[in-house]
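Predict structure. Chain length: 220.
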Amino acid sequence: MKVAIAGAGSVGTSIASDLHDGGHEVLLIDKDHDLVARIRDSLDVTWVVADACEVASLDAAGLATVDVVVAATGDDEDNLVVSLLAKQEFAVPRVVARVNHPKNQWLFTESWGVDVSVSTPQLLTALVEEAVSVGSLVRLLRFEGGTAHLVEVTLADDSPAAETSLADLGVPREATVVAVVREDRLIVPRGDTRLAAGDEVLVLVTADAEDDVRRLLVGS
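Prediction complete.
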């Protein structure tokens, strides 16, 4: 997989390093000549010193050949511009954008070319809620401009789903149970998988079906 990352700050370089170690081809773009000069020898990726908000720069960098673009700068406006250009001008299949300020989260949608947005404060909040909440539906990640979410529910003792198989649960077609974690053991869900109180249930669900999933797993 070929990935282009806009922004060579701590976030961008960390992502680039992990992807490179995973065997992916990485293109790292930043307009700060001094920054690139200081760190380029420490990271064996393809470096491009250019403004990722300019079409000509992205074209010269070969953005039309990448599979994924990660807009990882420290400026939300820049990340939105990079995302929009990547999607509309270069038809990049997958665009992931960093949200620096939670108040700007609503802008990071499909209309701006964003397939997946990642807000660190919101992600940390979700992880805290996931760790301490029982009997509540917690949103972990948002996909496809907000039309789908990865949610988690730790089943309470009185959950209507407890002691019920997935086949009998009646999960709506717009939702899929993707994993069940029971006592630190991952269970790949099947139709005959019987849920139990204390299970952590991960569900990929559209916004329209979220309330139905909440009723099934949490209750009214």
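Summary: Residues 76-88 form the longest helix (13 residues).
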